[in-house]
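User: I've been going back and forth on whether these two constructs are worth ordering. Before I decide, could you fold them both?

Assistant: Sure. I'll take them in the order you sent them. The first construct and its C-alpha cells:
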Amino acid sequence: MEKSTEEIPLIVRDCVGCGFCCIKTQCDVSYRLYKTVEVCPQLQWHEDESRYKCGLMLLPGNLGFEYRKELYAGAGCCSGLNDWRRDVKKRSRGVMSHARPIIPAMFQAFLKAYGSEPFISGDATTLILSNYASQLKAIEYSEEEINYIIGSVEHYITSNKTSMFKGFM
C-alpha cells in the first residue's frame, strides 16, 4: 500500500483580532524592539471594534507600511484551533501585564532613524545616552527604570545599524 505524499492544506482564516498570536508568541519585530517581553507592548485593545490591533501596523507612512509588510498584515490567521477566535474579548491584566515602561512609537521611529545613520559615532551616542540617563534621574526615574530605558534605546539603535557600522557602538 502506497503512502500519500499529499500535504494537508493549511486553513487560513481572516484575523479576528483575538490577540492570541501576540500574547502567546513574540514576533521577530517585537523581539528586535523590546527584547524578550511577556506580551508585546504594541498589542492594543480597540474597544470600538472589540478587537486587538498591532500598534506598529497602525503607524502612518513608510514605517507603518514596512511593519505591515514584515508582519504579513492581511495574510490571515492559521491558528484556527485556538478558542480565542470564538471568544474575542479584552483579556485580563494578568494575561496582558507589562512590567516595564513602554517606549512610545514616535520615539521608536526616531531611534530607528538615528540607528540607521552611519556617521554618528559610538562615542557621541554614548555621551548622549549618559546625558539622557542623568536627565531621567533628575525627573526621579529609579535606577532600574533608567537602566531598562537606556538598554532599550541602545537596543533600538544597534539593531538598526547596518552590519558595516555595528562595531561603532
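The second construct, handled the same way:
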Amino acid sequence: MKTLLIAFAIFLPICALAAPDEAVVREMAAQTKLSPQEIRANYDACDSGVTLTMKICGSYRWIAQDLRLNRIYRQSMAQAKERGYDKTLVKAQRAWLGYRDAACSYEGEMGAGGGSEEGLCVLSCKEDLTKERADHLEKSL
C-alpha cells in the first residue's frame, strides 16, 4: 500500500501537466525548422538552463500569444468594419508591429549585449508586448 501511495505521488504531477496546444505546435513547426516532436518535448522547458530548449519554450509562449492576438485582431477588424474605422485599425496595428519588433530588438541587445541570451530576451519581450496588445484589443471588443 505504501509503495502504491509513493508511486501515485510521483506520477500524479506528471499526469497533471497540460499538453501543448496543437495549434501552437503546428504554427511553430511551420515557422521554424523544428519538428512537432521537438516542440512538444520542450514547450515548457523555459527554466531548463539549456539555451536551445529555453528558446523553444520562449518561441512557443510567444507564438501562443501571437495566435491569440491574431484571433482577437480578426474580431476587432470585424467590429471596425461595421463602424467604419477599419483603415485606422490596420494603420495602428502595422505601427504597433514595427514598434514591437524595434523595442524587442533593443531589449535583446541591451539585455544580453549580443550574447546567446539575446534571442531569449527578444522572445520574452515579444511574448509580453503581444500579450499586452491582445489584452488591449480584447478590452475594446
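Notes on the second construct follow. Residues 4-16 have pLDDT under 50 and may be disordered. Residues 42-139 form a domain with the Substrate Binding Domain Of Dnak; Chain:A; Domain 2 fold (CATH 1.20.1270.180).
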